[in-house]
Amino acid sequence: MELFVGIINYLVFFAITAGTYGVLSLGLNLQWGYTGLFNIGVAAFYAVGAYASALVSGPPPDMWDGRLVGGFELPFILGILAAALAAGIIAFLIGIPTLRLRADYLAIATIGIAETIRMVLKNEAWLTNGVWGLQQLPSPFYDAIHRGATGFVQTHPDLSPWLRALVLKAYNWFYLFLVIAALFLLYLFLRRLAQSPWGRVLRAIREDEVVASMSGKNVFAFKLQALVLGAMIMGIGGAFYAHYARFISPTSFEPFYGTFIVWVMLILGGTGNNKGAILGAFVVWGTWAGTDFITGYLPLSPTQEASLRIIVIGILLVSILLVRPQGLLPEMRQRRRTPRTPE
Amino acid sequence: MLSRIPQLLFYGLVSGSILALGGIGVSLTYSILRFSNFAHGDMMALGAYLTLALIPVAGTLGIPSAAIGPLSFGPRFIVAAVVGMACTFVIVVALDRLIFRRLRKAGRITLMITTIGIALSMRNALQFFWGPQPQYYTARIQLAIQVPRLAIRVKPDQLFVISVAVLLVALLHLFLRYTKTGKAMRATSDNPSLAQVTGINTERIILWTWVIGASLAALAGVLAGVENKFITPELGWQMLLSIFAAVILGGIGNPYGAILGGVIVGVSEEVSTAFISTGYKPAVAFGILVLMLLIRPTGLLGRRS
Question: What does the alpha-carbon distance between residue B246 and residue A108 come to, in Å, rounded to a whole number?
């Protein structure tokens, strides 16, 4: 029974992380899946979102902190808004010089912005506390729920030990609920967008920019909107990460965790399919966590284990592209508005 | 601060030579295979590590390790580096046969994503075998020599790096200009379908592109190790942004542009350290890149596409 409770608690923790990645994957799907924007700097928007939210709703600097500003202790929801806003602004600035050019330039520029942001996070201690990162970030309603759970356990001494262990982790269930709710709302929003005329223009741009532009669409404006909106979603993902982990530092946003694994998730799940984007996040994060168990049995050093796991993800990516480039859930053909007339 | 500038200019020439060698491969791949190779930096690191592994092998063959003149390394290291370059292109050509060849008909972005997967696996394979900590080619310490009348200090190794880069760039120029294969490569880069119609074997040209690009990448990785005194698995990835900035600055697809761009980016990065924190060196490359994309995306030597 104890093992069972352990597994349940682990699965909740797992689902929170995978769900947060699902948010990133949905943002990337809007950019890459719908519009064909080759953004390989997801980590930039993820990091900016996490830091923005941490600065807006986190605690002010204490005496050991190198920060001079930030920590306004505002509510969680304002943190999320700040995250979306900050990531959107960065995307807007990066989109202007690159979106009129070929896909390669956006790719290189987004790698550049992701690396530059990481340098800023490391070097500008007055804002970010440098490599030490931001600590003791608040989780929404943590105190109330945690106090409630411990109080419940104390007033019910007859609880069986495994039920006790479950109740004590009540906060994780609450956070999982928040993440799932956010995923669900984003999913509905994106599905709506995909079916709207706006979404149709995005797909038209992805298929053939010249044709889209000949039909009188301002291709640049649509691409910029998709880039900014996708980045805002990624920023929200960053906020969800920051307030669950309660600690963020530049190492949390290295290219592997911040960008590449998100790409593998979207490509494996199904580029252009929102359900696929979410499914991919769970499958790939499951693979990543699963390899942790397996490599634990091999006679390897911790860094070798990490390298081997990343090699597995890299090979997974290349194999999907070779064998099943459409992913697990391929993009659905859009339903026609009018039923096909019988011939 | 300003008195440091001659010295920084010299450092910039050294790192610019390395960026140029790396950039040539990126540029050739771009113009002939038509995609940006994000694994290029990791091919550099691969070459640097294969050389490291080959030094003891060359030792068992009896190649002397005594340093040549004022340099910090000897014939053993040079033989290891040359064989290391060959091993790198063999591995890269094998990857082309195994992966890229099956994706020739796929879109360019699929190819670019594939290079990201390869980059990730390659870097971590190096980390798996050698670990993340720095590795050293030699324990010898080399003192910088004060150059009379110029306010700069120069290490013989650094002059070696510059000379090797200049030599190889000259050889590449002769190859592209005067050999049949070189001409065919330029033709393919100008117009692939026309080149194919005139009877140029595209697959052979692709093979040559990988051989040249990967060898020069490996050499760039080795020279980066000579200049920095150590190598890490991240060596190539850390230089990738500067290399792309160099290639775009010079005009993507033009190997001569890559050389010019490499030197400009290398010099700007080094000179910038007189004014801003060294932590932002790669951000300088990024700044140049964005500026160039805004003003003249075709690059200094690029044609209008």
Answer: 12
A325 part of contact set with chain B, CB < 8 Å: yes
- 3-class DSSP state of B8: helix
**Total number of domains in chain B:** 1
Give CA separation, A37 vs A92, A101, A202, A222, in Å.
13, 11, 10, 11
Read off the pLDDT of residues B93-143 as tens digits, 9 standing for 90 and up: 999 999 999 998 888 889 999 999 999 999 999 999 999 999 999 888 788
pLDDT > 50? residue A343: no
Q: How far is CA A276 from CA A166, A192, B110, B263, B300, in A?
A: 31, 16, 18, 45, 43
- Cβ contacts of B285 on chain A, cutoff 8 Å: 112
Q: What is the pLDDT of residue A339?
A: 52
Q: The domain containing residue B193 runs over which residues?
A: 2-295
Q: Residue A199 CB: number of other CB atoms within 10 A?
A: 19
Nearest CB to A111 within list B241, B280, B290:
B241
CATH of the domain at B8: 1.10.3470
Which two tokens mark B15?
Answer: 């790192």
Asked if A103 is an interface residue toward chain B (Cβ–Cβ < 8 A), one would say: yes
Q: Compute the distance between CA of residue A203 and CA of residue A272 in angstroms, rounded to an integer.
A: 9
Spatial contact of B302 and B253, defined as CB atoms under 8 Å apart: yes
Q: Which of B40, B42, B5 is nearest to B26 (CA)?
A: B40
Give the range among A100-109, B156-165, B179-188 with minimum mean pLDDT.
Answer: A100-109
Q: Is residue B302 part of a domain?
A: no
Query: Do B87 and B51 contact (CB within 8 A), yes or no?
Result: no
Transcribe B148-215 into DSSP letters.
TTTTEEE-HHHHHHHHHHHHHHHHHHHHHHHSHHHHHHHHHHH-HHHHHHTT--HHHHHHHHHHHHHH
Flag whether the pTM goes above 0.95: no
The per-type count for chain A, helices as H runs and strands as E runs, is 15, 0
Residue B187 lies in a domain: yes
How many angstroms separate the Cα of A238 from the Cα of each of A8, A23, A162?
25, 9, 33
**What is the arithmetic mean of pLDDT over B275-304?**
85
Per-residue confidence (pLDDT) for residue A62, from 0 to 100: 80
Q: How far is residue B85's CA from residue B214's CA, in Å, rounded to a whole number?
A: 7
From CA A52, how far away is CA A248, in angstroms rounded? 11
Sole residue written with tokens 């080795």:
B222
Write out the two tokens for A162: 């495994």
Q: Which helix (H) or strand (E) holds A121?
A: helix A103-123
Q: Is residue B303 part of a domain?
A: no
Whether A38 and chain B come into contact, CB under 8 Å, resolves to yes
Report if residue B244 sits inside a domain: yes
Chain B contact for A93 (CB, 8 A cutoff): no
Q: Which residue has the tokens 């390395």?
A: B18
DSSP A38-100: ----HHHHHHHHHHHHHHHHSPPP-TT---SS------HHHHHHHHHHHHHHHHHHHHHHHTT
A positions 304-323 inside 8 Å of B (CB): 304, 306-308, 310-311, 313-315, 317-318, 321-322
- Which two structure tokens, joined as six digits, stand for B276? 């801003």
Report the distance separating Cα A15 and Cα A178, nearest Å.
Answer: 11
Model confidence over A194-249: pLDDT tens digits?
A: 999 999 999 999 999 899 999 999 999 999 999 999 999 999 999 999 999 999 99
Of A256, A260, A308, the CB nearest to B128: A308
